[in-house]
Amino acid sequence: MKHLLLLCLTLIFSAANPAFSADGKHPNVVVLLADDQGWGDLSFNGNTNISTPNIDSVGKQGAALEHFYVCPVCSPTRAEFLTGRWHPRGGVWNVSLGGERLNLDEKTIADTFKAAGYATAAFGKWHNGMQYPYHPCGRGFSEFYGFCSGHWGDYFDAPLEHNGQLVRGEGYLPDDLANHAIKFIQENKDHPFFCYVPFNIPHWPPQVPDKFYAPLATNAIKQRSDNPQENVADTRASLAMTANLDWNVGRILKRLDELKLADDTIVIYFSDNGPNTWRWNGGMKGKKASTDEGGVRASCFIRWPGKIADGSRIAPIAGAVDLLPTLADLCGVPMVSQKPLDGRSLKPLFTGSQPAAWPDDRMIFSHWNGKVSVRTQNYRLDSRGQLFDMVADPGQDHDIAKDQPDLTARLTQAVDDYRTNVLPGIAHKELKPFTVGYREFPITQLPARDGIPHGGVKRSAAAPNCSFFTNWKTVKDSITWDIEVATAGKYEAVVYYTCPAADLGSKVELSFKGARSEVTVNEAHDPPLHGKEHDRASREGESLVKDFKPLPFGTIDLTTGRGLLTLKALNIPGKSVLDVRLILLTLIQ
């Protein structure tokens, strides 16, 4: 009788919730995110310079969102995907220096699926905070393998982390990420999983193995950007990285087939912003960092065999903010966030169950660096107040604001409302301290990216994300990190450094609120810069890298509260002190 009651309840629940299969299981979810891939980089959208059959198959065997919008740059898009809310609401205002961190009072898509009993993991580029609880393992992901910064200097055998522990990657980074995702899928094949794979390409540096670059090395690039600034070497590198990405997507899809999971798995593929270089992009205006169409329109495909019809083309505008409510709705997973969402479930568009309920006047806002643009189904009001008919004029060549005064006024008011109600989330761009010392996650990385150089100390490159500190030559120089310690206790401190033999002997002090630890640099470690040997084009601002060695500082007693963690030299017998990549603090008692 008990078993009959359970069977009846299961059948009733499954009938009420079509996302469940007959055995009452939730579908799995695999989210594949490209980094800096333009809408025009795929053969699905008409690029004849390249073939991307595996990525294209997700759209051909499911639905293609024809007008899908993200943010102009990386971390804001990731925040909108994670929360279903416009990125300023979550406090994300930059791609580095702490401005990429998602506010801790925001609940993420991983929180949502983990609460529903899913195994959750992320493999790749996180870019929404490194230090716990901003770390992926503090945002609902039980496993993380990859890197938390926005840039990485070398994609071969890269230094990465696995749940906070520093590790060395194996081979080409996107291949390594796919390997770990496939392993996670295999290990969790018997119960629901949420697998997020934010790949690191085709973001610069322009590195890719020979097998993907060789076919493009000599072929003519026939489809070109309308912008004369296009550099063909950049285009070849971007397309070769896209070819690798396609291969890795194919590997993941193949493993789902082999494990007989494809029919029970929702697969989503999208990109985080427009192309990072000038290349063919369907004639759209702008590229990465622009709030125009070319900077924010991205490919997005979603596949669920038997539930979403093959070859579906979804015309209504949609965006990254819609993916959380859509996946929760499709999977029958209750939302855990109590905050109102800016996104909405796209399920009616896939199933055709409620076509009349979809709003005709929907608006999607694009913001970056104070510039705001708004897109409706047929029009875009750009950041300068110009209005464009995106159906008749997809390249945004003819301003029709004077011809459509009522529409221009309505969209201008909508932008004003966005500025009034949404942008205050980042209006002050508060420099929050970097968090240290949680017993549930005792390891804290403090990279050079998050530090401040003083005196003559400089970064190795203009872009902070993958930089290290160098040119440390006087006792007046120092490096500081603005931190807030959550747990008072004894911490093991390690500085990752390089130092030539001629400069040995400096005594270096690490201090925080009166606590100090000193060490004399007695071991030379002077490896060469590398990364450039793998580049297919100019990296333009990305730092070259070195293999840094751990310099133990012993233990330091840290008290709770906010203050400056300071690294300075007490004496310098040589010409310089150290080059510094990272401080690692581990709470030990």
Task: Give a written overview of the molecule.
The chain is α+β, with helices and mostly antiparallel strands. It folds into three domains: 282 residues, Alkaline Phosphatase, subunit A; 63 residues, Arylsulfatase, C-terminal domain; 154 residues, Galactose-binding domain-like (Jelly Rolls, Sandwich). Helix content is 21%, strand content 26%. It has eleven helices and 29 strands. The chain has a ten-stranded mixed beta sheet with strand order 7-6-5-4-8-1-9-11-2-12, with helices on both faces. Strands 18, 20, 23, 25, 26 and 28 form a six-stranded mixed beta sheet that branches. Strand 16 and strand 17 form a beta hairpin. Helix 6 crosses helix 7. The longest helix has 27 residues. The protein is globular and about 70 Å long. 51% of the residues are buried.
SS element count, helices:
11
CATH topology descriptor of the largest domain:
Alkaline Phosphatase, subunit A
> What is the top-level CATH class of the largest domain?
Alpha Beta
Radius of gyration over all CA atoms, rounded: 25 Å
Q: What is the topology, as strand order, of the major beta sheet?
A: 7-6-5-4-8-1-9-11-2-12
Question: In percent, how helical is the residue content?
Answer: 10-25%
Form type = globular
Q: Helices and strands: which structural class?
A: alpha+beta
Give the biggest sheet: 10 strands, mixed
